[in-house]
């Protein structure tokens, strides 16, 4: 090593790829690029020859720059993939906001639930089948399914409709709850010996999408009945109630109305608002009824019973109350048979008679008063007994200490 050479030795540069090192695909691509560039140059030269050659002609420097720009455009088009019309349209439209972690978890949980739901239902069906078979082998009577009745053969011609035109006032969760309450109402009407003439109107938008997507109601096939679903007995339409039932007088049921519903008329259709809002849109059905010029009324709840909680009832509760009334013609009986005990229901004029299981079977009012007095006396005596016991315990403990 000579004294002149010092410092670090620079690494040798890698040899350039020769024509032999290129693959067949690289050679084809390079050849294609050269052919396209040649065609563009010929086209540019042809266009330049046809133009005017006077003072306003194309300069050589300008021509060369244009050709160079076209060559660069060809190279970029070969390297970058072309955008599809869908991508171009997506750029023009507003981009969707990114999902949060909570939303992503909910979506993933929903997807997992949908994947395993059919399998779970199949297992549950087989389990119930095996249970029924075991009951038959043991000689136990297997409970039969409730019979179903059709609206066409029903003696009740009372029309009741549920208006589903409230999608804009609900989120997805509330819409799903509304669809579930529709299913409960349908089941109650189907198993009644005298079902009402049940219609679901204004089924459009998000409510219709949720209805068709729901596992409970997707087989109803309400808009086009088929041979497999013709037994689903319900009238569903996207029209409003006045268009769907033009020969009926429309009466909206709303708690804000001053008109008390004393009886049902078969010439009228009674409309229940299909909304689950937890009282967020108070008086909405009342305002809609006034805007459209419909008659309105409220159920006679306060005339017959008292509720310790809110008087807000679910869609299926209101439907079942009307269904019971068509059979018994007794509002009090309809309320007591449908409204759940958690509402703290009691009959007017009978404050002590709340809907709770009775311990004593008393027949007269005098016996009821006596039993109530005895219960109150026992309650008063309980603290005295406790005090006496506690005094005895203290005496025993003191005697033990002395000994």
Task: Characterise this structure.
- The protein is α/β, with parallel strands linked by helices and 403 residues long.
- The protein has a domain at 151-222 and 229-300: Alpha/beta knot, CATH 3.40.1280.
- It is 49% helix and 8% strand.
- It has twelve helices and eight strands.
- The chain has helices spanning 24-50, 60-79, 85-92, 101-137, 172-190, 205-213, 241-244, 284-292, 301-304, 315-328, 331-338, 365-402, and strands spanning 159-163, 197-201, 235-236, 249-253, 268-273, 295-297, 305-307, 345-347.
- The strands form two sheets. The chain has a six-stranded parallel beta sheet, with helices on both faces. Strands 7-8 form a two-stranded antiparallel ribbon.
- Strand 2 (197-201), helix 6 and strand 3 form a beta-alpha-beta unit.
- The longest helix is centred in the last third of the chain and has 38 residues, at 365-402.
- The radius of gyration is 41 Å and the shape is elongated.
- Its EC number is 2.1.1.221.
- GO terms for molecular function: tRNA (guanosine(9)-N1)-methyltransferase activity; tRNA binding.
- Keywords: Methyltransferase, S-adenosyl-L-methionine, Transferase.
- InterPro entries: MT_TRM10-typ, MT_TRM10-typ_sf, TMA7, tRNA_m1G_MeTrfase_euk.
């Amino acid at each position: 090593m000579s004294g002149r050479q010092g410092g670090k030795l620079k690494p040798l540069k890698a040899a350039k790829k020769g024509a032999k090192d290129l693959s067949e695909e690289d050679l084809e691509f390079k050849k294609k690029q050269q052919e396209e560039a040649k065609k563009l140059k010929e086209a540019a030269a042809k266009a330049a020859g046809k133009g005017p050659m006077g003072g306003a002609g194309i300069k050589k420097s300008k021509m060369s720059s244009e050709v160079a720009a076209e060559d660069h455009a060809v190279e970029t088009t070969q390297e970058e993939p072309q955008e599809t019309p869908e991508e171009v349209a997506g750029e023009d439209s507003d981009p969707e906001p990114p999902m949060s972690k909570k939303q992503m978890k909910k979506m993933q949980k929903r997807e997992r639930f949908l994947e395993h739901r059919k399998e779970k239902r199949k297992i549950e069906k087989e389990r119930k089948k095996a249970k029924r078979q075991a009951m038959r082998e043991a000689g136990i009577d297997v409970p039969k399914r409730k019979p179903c009745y059709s609206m066409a053969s029903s003696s009740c011609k009372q029309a009741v409709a549920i208006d589903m035109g409230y999608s804009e006032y609900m989120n997805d969760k509330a819409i799903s709850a509304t669809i579930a309450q529709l299913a409960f109402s349908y089941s109650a009407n189907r198993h009644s010996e005298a079902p009402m003439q049940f219609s679901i109107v204004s089924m459009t938008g998000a409510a219709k999408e949720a209805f068709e997507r729901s596992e409970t109601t997707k087989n109803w096939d309400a808009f086009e009945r088929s041979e497999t679903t013709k037994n689903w007995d319900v009238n569903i339409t996207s029209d409003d109630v006045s268009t769907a039932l033009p020969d009926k007088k429309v009466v909206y049921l709303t708690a804000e109305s001053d008109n008390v519903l004393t009886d049902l008329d078969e010439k009228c259709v009674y409309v229940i608002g299909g909304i689950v809002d937890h009282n967020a849109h108070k008086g909405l059905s009342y305002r809609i009824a006034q805007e459209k010029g419909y008659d309105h009324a409220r159920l006679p709840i306060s005339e017959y019973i008292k509720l310790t909680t809110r008087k807000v009832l679910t869609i299926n509760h209101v439907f079942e109350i009307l269904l019971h009334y068509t059979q018994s013609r007794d509002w009090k009986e309809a309320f007591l048979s449908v409204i759940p005990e958690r509402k703290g229901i009691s009959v007017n004029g009978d404050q002590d008679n709340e809907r709770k299981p009775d311990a004593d079977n008393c027949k007269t009012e005098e016996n009821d008063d006596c039993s109530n007095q005895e219960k109150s006396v026992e309650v008063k005596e309980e603290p005295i007994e406790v005090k006496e016991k506690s005094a005895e315990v203290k005496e025993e403990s003191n005697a033990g200490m002395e000994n």
